[in-house]
Amino acid sequence: MRQAGRYLPEFQEVRKEHSFFEVCQTPELACEVTLQPIRRFALDAAIIFSDILVVPQALGMQVDMVPGKGPSFPEPLAEPSDLEKLKKDVVASKDLKYVMDAITLTRHKLEGKCPLIGFSGAPWTLMSYMVEGGGSVTQSKAKRWLYVFPEASHQLLQLLTDVIVDYLVQQVMAGAQLLQLFESHAGVLGSAMFSKFALPYLRQISTRVKKNLEDQGCTPVPMVIFGKDAHHSMEELAESGYEVVGVDWTIKPQRARRMVGPSLTLQGNLDPCALYASNDDIGRYVKDMLQKFGTQRYIANLGHGMYPDMDPDHLKAFIDAVHMYSEDINAN
Ligand code: CP3
């Protein structure tokens, strides 16, 4: 949840010298910024520094990170015929080799201190960026594709799925010990459209990644599906082959647990803006969250990404409170 990033002065220092994607593409730099939060805080896991948009880049699309605006595609997909421009033979071990190199280097440098998480954007979320050309509140251009060009949409989602499966398998081979899929734009789809255009691909990814790893003699790693604003499809997400379901802050912990059942692990869900509160208040929010989720089959986390103006000391208060209260709860 943007564990590494602009809220850390040491990250800003690196960014002064290097563009965002230069950091992603240079294993030594990606490794360095991945480790920055690990040096500062008692974190239980590291997440490799990269971005979900490296996959559209591997497919041949240009993506710029525009300061103050976020990601921007100068030539988004406008019509189904634009699909022909996408590279059809992406091989993750080659086209995204820099991510695997960053993962391997980081695994070594972590020296077993904590596990390393790999990740990818989910197909619908990546498709929406490729069609919208950047962030959008309504996602109306991307949703228009689903309604007007359903076949081309499925073709694009399948292409993305194939690349993502290969990409995630390679991340595990390179050293990732857990995988997270970000379906950040789940909320703009209702349950019917989500069932048609998102879930089948999410299921394919969990099934194929595990099978491919087994076929190559690797033990599959746990997989997390994070669907932002995915209230409409929590039960379905719980049955899509992932060990962990990530939840944003807009869902009640007890409701999330009822919807996913007793055997899955939940992850989340503090409102990231709670980090603007005083350290004492952060402690109270954490205590409340842990009491509601319990300490078993639960990974304490924020419900979405951190913002650049957040105070690192408040993140420390969050992390320390998680450890303190979970030990308290476990002792009683
Ligand atoms: O969490 C981590 O530390 C790992 C690295 C990570 C980043 N992005 C780094 C980043 C991860 C896991 C992501 C995922 C990501 N990227 C998602 C899914 C999670 C979510 O937020 O829903 C999405 C949708 C993106 C696309 C993206 N990249 C956006 C919308 C932005 C702009 C964000 C902003 O606040 O401006 C980015 C840029 C980005 N990705 C930054 C970082 C640290 C900040 C850019 C910078 O340094 O200039």
Question: Could you describe the 3D structure shown?
Answer:
By secondary structure, the protein is an alpha/beta fold. Helices cover 51% and strands 12% of the residues. The chain is built from 15 helices and nine strands. Helix 3 runs parallel beside helix 6. The radius of gyration is 19 Å and the shape is globular. The model has no long low-confidence stretch (mean pLDDT 97). Bound molecules: coproporphyrinogen III. The site of coproporphyrinogen III has 23 residues, from strand 3.
Number of strands: 9
Indicate the mean pLDDT.
Answer: 97
CATH architectural grouping:
Alpha-Beta Barrel
**Approximately how much helix is present in the residues?**
40-55%
| Unreliable runs | none
Biggest sheet, strands in spatial order?
1-4-5-6-7-8-9
Gap between N and C termini, in Å? 30 Å
Question: How would you characterize the largest beta sheet?
Answer: 7 strands, parallel
Shape: globular
Provide the CATH top-level class: Alpha Beta
Structural class: alpha/beta
| Tally of discrete structural domains | 1
> Strand fraction band?
5-15%
Query: Which molecules other than protein and nucleic acid are bound?
Result: coproporphyrinogen III
CATH topology: TIM Barrel
State Rg: 19 Å
User: Total number of helical segments?
Assistant: 15
String of helices and strands: HHHEHEEHHEHHHEHHEHEHEHEH
